[in-house]
Amino acid sequence: MWKVIFRKEFAEVFGDSRTRFNVVIGPLLFTPLLLALIGSLSRSQAKEAQKQQVQIGVVGLKNAASVNAELNGSKAKGITFVEVSSTAEAEQKIRSRQLSAALIIASDAEEKMKSEESAPLMVVDDPGSESSQQGADRLREYLRLRGDQIAARRLQSKGIPTQTTQPFLLTDREMTGSGRGMLMLTAFLPYVLSISAIMGGLMAATNTVAGEKERGTLETLLVTPVSRQDIAIGKFLTVTATALISGTLSLIGMLWPFYVKLPMFAWMASQGISFKPAAIIALILVQIPLAVFGAGMLLALSTYAKNQREMQTYTVPVLLLGTVGALLSMLLKADSPLIWSVVPITNAALVLKQALQGIVDLPFITIACLTSLLYAVAAVMLAAHLFRRESVLTRF
Amino acid sequence: MIKIDNIKKTFHDKKRGTIPAVDGVSLEAYPGEIFGLLGPNGAGKTTLLRIMATILAPTSGSAEIGGYDIVRDPEKVRAQIGYLSGSAGLYERLTGRQVLHYFASLYGLKSVQATQRINGLIEELDMGSYVDGRCDQFSTGQKQRVSIARAVIHDPPVLFFDEPTNGLDLIAARTVVRYIRERRAAGKCVVFSTHIMSEVEALCDRIAIIYEGKVAAIGTMTELRERTGAQVFEDVFLRIIGLEEN
To answer: Counting one residue from A and one from B, how many pairs have CB atoms under 8 Å apart?
Structure first.
């Protein structure tokens, strides 16, 4: 009889436009579109920052003619130097955002330049200001380039080839099947999949018991000859299936931009991605117990709650812990210490991260899969226990 | 058909301690009669009906419905009964017909049998004009007719109606009352719970007056009038529960 209940519950859950939006449309369309938006915004901001002129204060310019000469032509590189009388004044102007950063030229800089030694220069910036940091970075890059040019001139005047100071000729070649896209997937996919597995079944779980209590339909179900066990199984499978669909569609949502070549995804998808078989096995091994764990927990809460509002109250701390667990996987290294393999959700997310990075840490994977399974069984047992308790189930 | 023997049900509350909701109720009801449970709100009528419908387990005592024990064979008991309460809801995103098909499946009716039964009920309860619409668009009266059809989809020999006219307008309430009478005529055993005196007078063959979880009196209308010496049923009720002197 659980099949009859499952079929009806499943059809009803997906008959709800909110579920269709959260479980189907959201992961398939909005997640990739959000990524495209974030990507294009960050790129346009970076371009904009490159175009913008930054104001850099300079202290000690009058006594350093040689350094001053090197600063000429900076406007073409987007840097405008403004003479400032003292370090204190420069700091005050950085704080009031009149300057991005400042360059302090030491009193003996001119002398050092002339004697072809290193002239002491100090860059002052505000570590609490992003624009100050960006301005200081551009200043350092500019000074590094000019410094290289001066060094080349000095070497040439001595008849020494510039290669003398460059013993290695470095070139870069990026591998295909990796790049920004793979980096992004490794960081986000474990988080997104863990969250989907836990939260994907939220609406189904809320609707299927707490919602039924509230609408007065659970009582009508309890007076049918169907056993409590069949009712619980039908509802549990509905929530698990919804969570699995949510996880699968989230995965598809994160992957399709790499295969459908649209310009908006070029920034992350141009270098492609490569999935090892281990990654796919890990996805399956981890997703199922995660979805079962989430479904068990949510169904237990929904059974305990008297109505949907109560259910929402109970789910807040659980979802918060779930989100923190998934977020931890973004902060931790894939090959984290073994202790993390017993932390629910984080362990599953780390197994996914390892698989995506091609790391096969068998003890970690084994413990993580076993503990995930254990947590899933415990969650299902809790839900079943509550479903058997008359005082909980009949809180109409 | 229904035999209840010294049923008790207590609830535990952190603040109020142990609450006896049903306190030693014994009664019998037979096929072809409407047996009324009359009592004020909180008297224990709904708890008693929920025990008989096996939603709640009794703390002590025993009960048989259609020959099956409510504790030992709850699923067989549920196959014998139809249960409708005033607070019963419908699946709002399903149509009336889908709801009826769903419950027909839960009661184990085969597809052809279910379709025939549903069509019969649609005609009997005059639901043809709206039954294919979504339940969330039905009026209260329309919902109640679908709920009745849902409760009797398997044509059970025993029917429990817990305040089924609650919140209904006059026309909808009359439909319910008419349907209950027809069930009696069809030889069903109907247990009808209410706090509305006029419904009891109009419908019930025998009545149990429930007060503070106990059966304060049981008998036909005539027997209860003779016992109290009152003619107006409200006076009968008040005298039995001890709130008015003879």
So the answer is: 67
